[in-house]
Every structure is written in structure tokens, then in C-alpha cells.
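JOB MANIFEST
job_type = single_chain_structure
chain_count = 1
residues = 211
[input]
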Amino acid sequence: MKLLIQGNNITVTKAIHDYVEEKLEKAVKHFQAITTKVDVHLSVERNARIADRHKAEVTVYANGTVIRAQEGSENLYASIDLVSDKIARQLRKYKERHQDKKSHVLIPAGELGTEIETQPVEIGDRLPELPQEVVRMKYFAMPPMSIDEALVQLQLVDHDFYMFLNQDTHEINVIYSRNHGGYGVIQPRLANGNGHSNEHSNGNGNGKTAL
């Protein structure tokens, strides 16, 4: 297993390195055959008043699939323990899904709750908005996949959403976890109503897509 450990606002000492290595070797012990590389990112928020400021993020590359988990707590070692346990559960889930796929057992796409909402959804007491500047850019391969496969990926990367290339429409889609349970899929639609679009008019000329 190739292990890479990086730190932000923290020095990765030998003691920390050895602890991470021990915990993750145990987490991937039964999945060594499919695990090619493990990236670990440890960080500490500078503001001591922030709760759970010690964070640990782990990304496992398994047979071309990215499996990710992150945890935070008031103690770095506790965060490492939590994320190691979580990544072990994610790997088990991946292996079970992989076995199900071999048996041609897939979740029916109709159960995903695919929809296009017409009104913007508030987050707390505000509308979603983009940051003022780009703080990080990522580039990754996007092989075509079905909605069922995208759902599996969403559950493995520990995010609220997952962007993918729909194999049926050859368009970029986003599958996401809904606040009230279940999943939704955002698909593009042309503004003139013919085909697909990434906007829906709210009646006052401002096109918005709800998440």
C-alpha cells in the first residue's frame, strides 16, 4: 500500500506518521488486493475557538474507484481513529456493491427521485451562493456511468453531491443527497425548453436551478 501523508498547519512527526500508518493498515487490511494508494491530509484550524478543528481526510484509490472519508474532532489522534473506522466501512460498502454489480443487482433508477425543482432552496436563512474567488481546482477523469453507478460513487466519496457523465444522455449530471431524505439528480435543459437545460426561469427573468 502506497501511503502519502500531508499536513496543513501541522508538522507530521514520526509519531503521527506511524499512528496514521498503523490505523490505516488495519482499516484496509482485508482490502489490500484492491487498494493501490492512500492519501491522507491532516489539518488544524488556527482559531482555537473552532470546535472539531483537528481534521483528518483520507482518500483511497481502489481499482480505479475513489473512496473518501473525513472526520474532525478536538484531538488529532481521535480524528485519525474516526476517519480510519469510516474508511473501513466505506471499503466494505464498496466491496459489497462491487459483488452486487457482478451479480447484476442494481438499484432501480426510479427509486432515486430524479427531478428538476423550479424554486431555489434556502440553506438555513440564506440562498446558496458561490465564493468570491476560486480557492481550489480539481481535475479528474469522468468516465460515462449510469445513475445507479453514480449513486454508488456518491455514497463512497462522503460528499453531499457527485458530478458525473451520464452514459445515456452524454451530458454532465449531478446527483445529490436531499435535505429531507432520498436523492435528486440535476440535468441540463436548454433555455428555450427544447432538450435539456441548466436553468429554469423563476418568472422574473433570473434563471436559477434549485439544489
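[summary]
DSSP finds three helices and eight strands in the chain.
The helical segments are 14-27, 76-102, 147-157.
exit_status = 0
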